[in-house]
Every structure is written in structure tokens, then in C-alpha cells.
């Protein structure tokens, strides 16, 4: 609550530190899909200190300032937003960074801040639900819901009409190694369950190959006999991951491969081999799922990427972007949902 003659309370002014931090984390999440957990620790500590500061100010003010303006929204923020963040992370609806961001916001913004700018007080539309972190969350959800509509309009304007136009767009294969998201294509057509591009990068680094090399000789590298004797560390699939790769591209680089081929062919007409592309060997070697990738999903994705010049991908916009947008909207306007309904 703003005191008479002041721009804002000390705690509310310090809370604005979160804006550039969340802008940076949203940018990092778009560029790398990786946000260090250490970024949230200072904000969480700041939030705890400001919460105690607010409690003291509300206690001194007494009356409804303590009970209605502080205790009720704080209880909603910590008792509702925190469990929601944990639940959605637990069921896979949020990534770890998204959940941590919401946990930090629950501590940092339990009550509605007020900023007096001359005759104007921001947020413009405070609501009866005083938990500001809940307002940020609902704003973020509305922004996230609007993104597919924007994507569909963009695709329609470019003449790209397809069943997946709400969730993706086509990109040339050359951009795939530096692109985040998931393939929306399989050899049999469009699909929502295609190969995760982080898993693709893990596989290519494991083999010491580039996507361009794979496309130059797909039949060669489809043969598991070309798997390297000493694979590279796959890293975590991040675009920016450092990796000192052995670029041999397989144990039989530069020589004819001895392939155990049967007379049968697969649906694409290629000779049938045991474990095409070495997909199963890769997943067994890394002792993990590579973001839920199965051998079949990896094989289908590689087949598409070796054949198509342009592929549909889902960018999978990280939820930190809507969270940041929801924070900015909340600070300037207030609650998009309840502010327009109440």
C-alpha cells in the first residue's frame, strides 16, 4: 500500500528488481532452454526479507492493513500459488525453471504493490483478490493461451495451412542444429509426438557427426556398423553446450562398411538392418531416455531430417516468457482476467 506523498513503499520499490531479472531469464530460456537455479536464490532471499518488512509495516499500521491487506493475500500466495507451481511441475506441466520462478514470485509478490506516478497509480486495475503472485500466474496463463492463436495467424498469413499451424512453423533443415523445440513430422506425415531437438543434438554429439554429414550419407550412417568405438559425451543437448568431440563419425570412417543386411526393406525402401541409425545403442549407452525419446522416435526423426529440406517444428515457447509478460502486465494494468470481469 502506498503511503501518502510517496511513490511507493520501500519493499515495493525493491520488488522492481525482479523485472530485469525475469526479462533476462525469459531471454535465456528462449535462446538456450537453460536457466541456472542459482538465479532464483537471491530473489528468494530478497522476497523473504521484504515479506518480513511488509509484515512489520502492516503490524504498525494495524487494523485491516494487517489482517486484510497483508495476512489474507500472503496466505493465498503461499498457500495456493506455491502448491500450484509444485503440482504442475510434478505432473510435467511446468519445467523446473518455471516452477522455481513461480515459487519465487509467491514469496516476492504476496501482496499487491502500488506505484504512484503523479496522478496515476499502478497497477491500474487492482482486484479484490490481493495476492499479486496469483494475478501474475493468471496473466501468464492467458498469455500462454494466446500464443497459439498468434502462431496460427502468422502461419495463415504466410499461406501455411496445416493441422499443426497452431503449435508450429516450418524451418529449413540447416537451422535445426541451433533450434529448440520438437519435430512435428514423421515419415508417414505430421505428428505432435516427434523427435525432441535436444535429443537430436545429444545423438549427433555422441556420434561425432553434424546433421550435414548425416544428410550427405544417410545410408552409410543408418548402418549401426558405423557407430564409433568410443562415443563422445552426449552433453544435455543444449545449443550452447561445450563439447570436445572426436569427429570420426564412426569406427569405419573412410572405409566400406560391413553391414549385416537382409533381403528385406523397410517402408522407405532401405535395406533392413538391426538397430537402424544405432538408435537403441545410443539410448542404452547414455543410460537415459533423452527427453523421453524412444529408438523408434529417433529413427523416424532422422529419416525425416535426412530427406526433407524444410520441416515443421513446435518451438515449445518456454513458460518463463508468459510469466515475464504476466509480471509486466500485472505491474502496469493489474489482473487481466478478474480486472475485466469484476
Automatic annotation (TrEMBL):
GO terms assigned for molecular function: aspartic-type endopeptidase activity
Transmembrane segments: 39-58, 70-89, 101-117, 129-153, 319-341
Record EC number: 3.4.23.43
Membrane-topology descriptor: Multi-pass membrane protein
Superkingdom assignment: Archaea
Domain Preflagellin peptidase C-terminal residues, every copy: 308-336
Region described as Disordered: spans on this chain: 220-251
Taxonomic path: Archaea, Methanobacteriati, Methanobacteriota, Stenosarchaea group, Halobacteria
Protein name: Prepilin peptidase
UniProt keyword list: Cell membrane, Hydrolase, Membrane, Transmembrane, Transmembrane helix
Domain Prepilin type IV endopeptidase peptidase residues, every copy: 17-133
GO CC term, one of those recorded: plasma membrane
Compartments, record wording: Cell membrane
Keyword Electron transport on entry: no
Chief localisation class: membrane
